[in-house]
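Weekly puzzle thread! Below is a chain. First person to post its structure in token form gets bragging rights.
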Amino acid sequence: MATQNGVTAPSSNWTPSIDQALANLLLAKLQQAERSLLLDQAELVELNNAQVLVRAGQPLSHAFFPTNCMISLLSKPSTARCLEVGQIGFEGVLGASSALGVSASAFDAVVTGAGQAWRMPLAVLRAQCLQSQYLSVLMVRYLYTELGQMGALAACGQFHVQEQRLARLLLMCQDRMRVADLEVTHESLARVMGVRRASVTLLAGLFQRRHLIHHRRGHMVVLDRAGLQATACSCYAQDLAFYEQVMSEKWPP
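Winning reply:
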């Protein structure tokens, strides 16, 4: 077993026991006193699949620090279809823009992987950012990684085939939900990829024949993570490396 950032992950089913106070990477980067100050004004909440946390253009009332759930940022240029432009899990926070004095959301924020998150009033996070230069820098750095992820997703959707994109998406989902059994539907995956449901169904069947996953109604179980990594485009590894590079820079410089 390996322990990192408050998470003990076994090598078999990847069903970790989580120290909730440390399980979010941004919270784990804070000194204990500063982390406790934030968590004393927060509550650990259950987020459900398809739960809408905020609509584009609306002010965000609370910040969410996921521990083992996934939030998708969705752009909806038409009433018929939407496209995932960002994904937030235990590595991030919904509401980082409060460090810049912005409360309005640029995108729909929808839960696409049920689990838990720390929820706190956005005003609390904003006030603490004004008090702590390190927390403010941390939020801005995270926003920068989000911007990089959005650019990578746009390029990926344009230049990489659906097979690579679905493999990448499943890896991202597993990273954030921290389980091998992903509670996702073909329809939800198609929605965030901006493709037809039938396309995801065909690819899921292909992945199952390769023994990469096992899929059943409402679930996809990852059987061969290394195989998915080999199938995914290079964007997946690049995203991880970019996050590590930005978030690990020494402070103060």
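Puzzle host: Confirmed. Bonus trivia for everyone else. The two ends are 34 Å apart (CA to CA).
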